[in-house]
User: Fold this.
Amino acid sequence: MRMLRPLVFLAAIGAALPVLAEQKGAADDSPAVCARHEIHARYLAEKYGEFPLFSGVAADGISLQLFVNRTTGTWTALLVRGDGISCLTTAGDNGRQDVGL
Assistant:
């Protein structure tokens, strides 16, 4: 049961990707919610000092990539499509690495 929650969440986000691709970034210097992956990666590195810590590929070919700043604890989750477009799914702070990972 515990494994179904992330899969349901990812399925819902995957269904929303075409809608998200049309939205613009909230701040003047932020990229759109969906943009070329290299744009998101550069922005997260320059603005927040976040770099990829984890990647996983779902059965449908969409990958989840987690960017983390290990010093400040900020983090951002992106879904990356096969065509190189990534979409911001969520972000936060106070991140920590769980024991055993």
Notes: The longest strand covers residues 85-92. DSSP finds two helices and five strands in the chain. Residues 1-27 have pLDDT under 50 and may be disordered. The first helix runs from residue 4 to 20.
